[in-house]
Amino acid sequence: MMLSGPSLGPDRRREPRYPTRHRVEGESLDRRIGVRGILRDLSVGGCCLNLDRRIPLRTPIEIRCDISGLGLRIRGKVVWVEETGTGVFHGITLTGYV
Question: 3-class SS at 8?
Answer without folding.
Answer: helix
